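We store sequence with structure; for instance:
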Amino acid sequence: MNSPRIEALGDGALLIQCGAGIDAGVNAQALAIARAIETAKLPGILDIAPAYASVCLRYEPHAWIGADVQSPFARLAQRLSTLVEDVASSPVRGYYSLSPDAVGGEGWGEGELLEIPVIYGGESGPDLDEVAAHAGLMREAVIELHSGAEYRVAMLGFTPGFPYLLGLPDALHMPRRATPRTRVPAGSVAIGGAQTGVYPRETPGGWHLIGRTPLHLFDPARDPPALLKPGMRVKFVAQ
C-alpha cells in the first residue's frame, strides 16, 4: 500500500490521498486516518470527511500560523505527516480489513452494527427481477445473497446521509442503469456496480432498486442527522 499524500485544497482545506478506486484496504486506511485525526483533537479543525480513498480536512488557517515563514498548510501538513505515518505503521493491521473487531473504540470505523429492515421486490424493488436475470439467479437467491452479506459504510456522499456500502457479493455486481430515474423514493435499497446503498430521500438516481426500508437515514432535526457513519457495519434484514 502506497504512503498517503497530503495536498492543499485552497487556503482552508487539504486532502490526504491514500490511493485510488474502490478498495477495502485503502478505504480502511482512510477511515483509520480520519479516526486518528479526530482523536488527536488538533486545533482549528472544522470538518473531517473520509471518502473511499482519501480524507478531506477543513481547517481554520489562523490556528496554524507560527512565528516563522511556514504557511498554515505546511505547518498542519507537517503535523499530519507524523500522524499518518503512525497509522500506516500501526501493528493493528485490522485497520486495513473489514474485520468488525479490528477497529474498536469511538469515532470513525468503530464497527457498530446496524440492521436495516428491507421489503424486497414489487413496488418497493422494481429492478429485483432485472438484477436476478443479470446474475442468472432466482429472485429469492438474490434476496438471500444481498441480505446474507455484512457490509461496511465506506463513505457518505451524493446526497446527505447516502451510504456507499462495501461487501456486495460478486454475483450481484452489475452496471448502473443506462437511463437514470428522475425520482427514486426515499428508503430505496439499490445496487450500482460493486456497491449497494440506500437513498435517504427522494432524488434522481441511476442504481438498480431492489427493495425499500422504512428507516429514515437522514433527518436534519436529529443529532446526528445521518443514521449511518463511515466505518459502521450494516446488515439488511428481509421483511
Notes: Residues 159 and 200 are 8 Å apart (CA to CA). The chain is about 20% helix and 30% strand.
